[in-house]
Design a protein that fits this description.
249 residues; 46% helix; 18% strand; Rossmann fold; alpha/beta
Length: 249
């Protein structure tokens, strides 16, 4: 008997990594997806690509960083049935110097990458609690592991998100049917990093998506993707400050 269709709701539906996760899931079983994002034209382009691949997809135009949205109501309206996987993938990588020089841009970076993701995650978890089971996967970052001069604002937002998700896992530990996975990509070749010079540590969004899907399937709490980022970040975390402050990370 074939496995039932997997119902996925993606916040930040134009994310390259989120799209790769959906495609990886669809390689293994039937999938249907609801894409939520702020750019209707780009969402439609993603939807058309998924449909061409045989993946039923719908779109809902709503800005995941908008704190005025009633996310509980939107989830019910978008996916009134059982949702197997909520995937939170929205975010932005603003220039750090510009953010540090402009309070509004600094607040925006923290709101988009932490506050709004936290609010959406809470709504997703309430939905999972109502149905009693399911997965929540959230795209974090290896930048959260230690404040580094090059991207500590973005890293701080992702670190706050990681702490919040760990707290949710602790709170929901008595319900083994609800899984929360923090996905921690390293340098990934996506539109978000289009202006970042590419080096040997960069990984394709397709590979990151495939590895992320494997982690979600097995209910991993935290997944470094690719896994060798765990080794790199462990070394960075353990460096004594006197040595760490001499680096240009």
């Amino acid at each position: 008997m074939p496995a039932p269709s997997l119902n996925i709701v993606v916040f930040g539906g134009t994310s390259a990594i989120a799209q790769a996760i959906v495609r990886a899931a669809a390689h293994e079983r039937s999938v249907q997806v609801a894409l939520i994002g702020r750019n209707a034209q780009r969402l439609e382009s993603v939807r058309n690509d998924l449909v061409a691949r045989g993946i039923p997809a719908e779109t809902k135009c709503a800005d995941p960083s908008d704190l005025a949205v009633d996310w509980d109501a939107l989830i019910l309206a978008t996916a009134p049935g059982h949702v197997d996987l909520f995937l939170i993938a929205h975010g932005e990588l603003a220039g750090q110097d510009a953010a540090l020089a402009d309070p509004a841009r600094l607040a925006r970076t923290l709101q988009v990458n932490f506050v709004s993701a936290a609010v959406v995650a809470a709504a997703c978890i309430r939905a999972l609690e109502r149905q009693g089971a399911g997965w929540l996967a959230v795209i974090g970052s290896v930048a959260a592991d230690r404040g580094r001069a090059s991207n500590f604002v973005y890293g701080a937002a992702k670190a706050g998100l990681e702490t919040l998700l760990e707290g949710w896992r602790h709170r929901l530990a008595k319900n083994p049917s609800i899984h929360i996975t923090t996905i921690k990509p390293g340098l990934t070749d996506t539109p978000m990093t289009a202006d970042v010079p590419k080096g040997p540590l960069f990984t394709s969004a397709e590979k990151v998506g495939a590895l992320s899907w494997k982690a979600i399937k097995k209910g991993a709490a935290v997944a470094y993707v690719p896994g060798w980022w765990w080794i790199i970040l462990t070394i960075i975390r353990l460096l004594p400050r006197k040595i760490f402050y001499r680096t240009k990370l």
